[in-house]
Each structure stands twice: as C-alpha cells, then as structure tokens.
Amino acid sequence: MNEDRATRYHRFKRQLGILGWVLDAAAPRGLAWTGWSGRAPRRRRVSGGEDRSGDVAAPHADSADLRWSFSPLLNEIGSLPLGWYTGYVVERRYGLSNETLAHWVRGRSEVARHRLVAAAAAARR
What is the pLDDT of residues 86-112, one digit of tens each? Predict the structure, then answer.
C-alpha cells in the first residue's frame, strides 16, 4: 500500500468515525425533538373511566425506565449500517481484510450482545 492510498484510507476512516459520533449524539436529541422519547407505552384512563392497558410494561413502569432500557438496543440497530460500511466494505475495498460476511456478522453480534448485557447491568443499578 503506497503512502497516498494509506493517507486516503486513514482520512476516510476518521471521517466515518466522526460521522458515527455525530449520529450517536444526534439520535437522543432527535427523539426528544420529535416527541418520540415520551411515547413509551403506559396505562392511561379513558374518558369513560375504564382502564385501557395497551402497554407492554407493568402499570408502575415509568416511561423513562422504558426509554433507557430500549436505548442501547436502538443504538445498536441504528449503528449497524455505518458499522457494516466501515468495518466490512471499506476494509475489503482497501485490501485489508479477507473476512467473510458471515464472520463479520458473527463478530458484530458478539460485540452487540456484550454491550447490551453491560447496559442492562448498568440500568439495574
């Protein structure tokens, strides 16, 4: 790999890394701005006085609890396309990897599983 190609590779990887940081920072703000962050299902009274339970969680669960429990999962799902592009496509384009797609998916799922377990452990504190 000559110096020009290596320079282009590292510049491109830095740009994609910055894009990932921006998307990670913008996602919660976007949910708050659109109002989706407060739309966690919970019990509510209907005008007739009867309880309507269209929720998945227990009646005492707060919407913030639900939001924080699904946040790591949504983050993993949202980062998947950029992770695939930076970790699989770009590496193969520059001839730095001969990993198959199945191996990449297996490695990515292991990382996601570890992150979700750590987030669940942190949420229980």
Answer: 999 999 999 999 999 999 999 999 988
Structure tokens at 27: 């996602």
**What stretches of 35-100 show up as alpha helix (H) in DSSP?**
63-84, 90-93
Is the pTM value of this prediction over 0.70?
no
38-52 per-residue burial string, b: 16 or more CB within 10 A, e: under 16? eebebeeeeeeeeee
**Alpha carbons 88 and 82: distance in angstroms, whole number:** 10
Q: What is the dihedral of CA 88, 94, 99, 103, to 10 degrees?
A: -10
Instruction: State pLDDT tens for residues 25-39.
Output: 887 777 777 776 665
Task: Report the C-alpha gap between 43 and 118 in whole angstroms.
Answer: 29
Q: What is the DSSP letter of 95?
A: T
- The H or E element containing residue 104 is helix 101-123
